[in-house]
Amino acid sequence: MSRKIGIVGSGLIGRSWAMLFAGVGYQVVIYDIEAKQIESALVDIEQQLKSLEKNGLLRGKLNSSQQFACIKGTNKLEEAVRDAVLVQECVPENLELKRKVWKGVDDIAEPSTIFSSSTSTFLPSLFSDHLKNKKNIVVSHPVNPPYYVPLVEIIPAPWTDPAVAKKTRAIMEEIGQTPVSLSKEVPGFVVNRLQYALLNETWNLVADGVLDVKDIDKVMSDGLGMRYAFLGPLETTHLNAEGFVDYCDKYANTIYSVSKDFKPLQKWEGPQVGEIAKQLENMVPKDKLQERRNWRDLALTKLSQLKKSLQ
Ligand SMILES: NC(=O)c1ccc[n+]([C@@H]2O[C@H](COP(=O)([O-])OP(=O)(O)OC[C@H]3O[C@@H](n4cnc5c(N)ncnc54)[C@H](O)[C@@H]3O)[C@@H](O)[C@H]2O)c1
Questions:
Q1: Residue nearest atom 27 of ligand 1, based on CA coordinates
Q2: Residue 75 located in a structural domain
Q3: Which of 29, 32, 44, 143 best tests ligand 1's pocket when mutated (most atoms within 8 Å of CB)?
Q4: What is the pLDDT of residues 60-104, one digit of tens each?
Q5: In this predicted structure, what is the pLDDT of residue 56?
Q6: pTM metric for this prediction
Q7: How many domains, the chain?
Q8: CA atoms within 13 A on the CB side of 56
Q9: Residues 136, 73: one domain?
Q10: Beta-strand pair 151-156/137-142
Q11: Ligand 1 atom closest to Cα of residue 89
């Protein structure tokens, strides 16, 4: 079986995928429309791998030089796509662009190559209906930063061959990610449906003046999020009573009546956008965003080490 992966688009997500695939010895070929991007991606990946190794955080089975040796750049799409077991598309979130890029891949790919998109918002049916190999399309939606947050949602289009979704899942497991396989495409997939449910309620609570931005965020970071890093919401309920049936006996009425108090869905616009932005910028000034992202990545690394040690 081919051990080659093609990466199309060498930005933030393309680089992370390249490192994850190379970690277990896949031969990775990165293509980008911008020659400069490929160069900077290779420099960045080498630096990242070395620094991860130095800090004892390198994933995969090979050392950093061996991993880096598995990654090549190209400015010819064909060199990335030819004979690849899977092509991971990581171009910007623009539907017309995704349709065009996949058509280009489809024209030169082998019939057995998996077409895997990193899109965070577009249903796979929207950018694969025109492809001759459309049965090979899946979305493999990562969570940023994928190197530290292992979840990947695998989403089929209505015409995806189930064997393709299954093989993609096996590859994701092989590289050490945590795949979940959706049975069908739904808007927002699952990560964003859950995320948006939470975000909509934070919006309404701020609008109501119940808590300010800092304290709402604390409810997650120092409250619910502490548990959710280890247990999902359903297992949490199971443990918070004598099992799930007991939880429903005890709390179903409360969940129902509190949920009836939820305010209708609001569009995120108007003066509250500026108000929330102002409070967030007091917490993290805009010129400190990168510093805070670096801190977030460090915190996530430590969390993933802790999770591993508990397994
Ligand atoms: N950044 C995130 O947090 C995140 C998380 C999950 C999924 N995603 C998804 O991953 C995808 C990529 O996002 P990103 O943040 O890496 O974007 P990015 O802007 O960092 O990188 C995109 C890269 O694609 C290249 N590109 C543009 N047109 C191209 C073409 N025709 N052919 C080849 N390369 C081309 C650009 O030069 C750039 O290097 C998007 O679909 C995004 O929704 C992003």
A1: 91
A2: yes
A3: 32
A4: 889 999 999 999 999 999 999 999 999 999 999 999 999 999 999
A5: 86
A6: 0.94
A7: 2
A8: 3
A9: yes
A10: antiparallel
A11: 11
Distance CA 21, CA 26 (A): 5
Cβ of residue 80 lying under 6 Å from some atom of ligand 1: no
Which stretches in the chain have pLDDT values below 70? 1
- Residue 281's CATH number: 1.10.1040.10
8 lines ligand 1 (CB under 6 A): yes
Range of the domain at 274: 191-230+262-310
Query: Could you tell me if the CB of 33 is within 6 A of ligand 1?
Result: yes
pLDDT at residue 1, rounded to an integer: 57
Q: Has residue 235 been placed in a domain?
A: no
In a domain, 246, yes or no: no
If asked whether residues 132 and 43 sit together in one domain, one would say yes
Q: Does the residue 250 lie in any domain?
A: no
Looking at residue 175, its amino acid is I
User: Given the structure tokens 């493999």, which residue do they identify?
Assistant: 140
- The pLDDT value given to residue 224: 97
Domain shared by 207 and 298, yes or no: yes
On whether the CB atoms of residues 192 and 120 are closer than 8 A, the answer is yes
Residue closest by Cα to atom 41 of ligand 1: 119
**Calpha distance 141→4 (Å, rounded):** 20
Position 305 scores a pLDDT of: 87
Whether ligand 1 lies within 6 angstroms of the CB of 74 is answered as no
Query: What is the number of alpha carbons within 13 Å of residue 100 lying toward its C-beta?
Result: 8
CB atoms within 10 A of CB 53: 14
Ligand 1 and 12: CB distance under 6 A: yes
| One-letter identity of residue 133 | N
Q: How far apart are CA 149 and CA 168, in angstroms?
A: 18
Does the beta carbon of 145 lie inside 6 Å of ligand 1?
no
Protein residue closest via CA to atom 32 of ligand 1: 33
User: Cβ atoms within 10 A of the Cβ of 274, count?
Assistant: 9
Q: What number does the ligand 1 atom closest to the CA of 121 have?
A: 43
